[in-house]
Amino acid sequence: MIKLNKMTDYGTVLLSVLASYYAREPMRLLSSVELARKSGLTQTTTQKLLKSLAGTDFVEAERGKTGGYRLIKSPRDISIAEIVEALEGPIALTSCVTASLDPCSSRMSCFLGGNWEKINTTISEALQKVSLEDLCHPTSFFQQNQDDQKGHSLSSSHSEVF
What we know:
About 55% of the residues lie in helices and about 5% in strands. It is built from seven helices and two strands; from the N terminus they run αααββαααα. Helix 1 (about 5-25) packs across helix 2 and helix 1 crosses helix 3.
């Protein structure tokens, strides 16, 4: 089973809270206490995640009494792949792929590595195509994909007729 760890799931929940504020008040800073309360996560988990997320190019942290956290990039411009990589490291399904932090000792003699690389690349590209905004508003994302598929099937059937 391919599964993201719980902290990545929780981190995405925190980012969804930040995304909801970005839409209404992009400059608003939210404290870790507010984020914990609004996300339903513990304060300890929230602080641990914010420490990791504050080091990315999509979350900003400001210190001080009026400090807090906010998105500095539109949720539309933050891919799920970026979130996974920020919280878990490079996307690597097996130790065979080049992105793996723990390289396989049989990498040079095994014929499966290149095939895993193709699968890893396909999954990475799929995660790159889905944004935080898509995750927060799945109906618009799925509607867009259905429209794309209908357009594709219409053009395919049209070309078969002629």
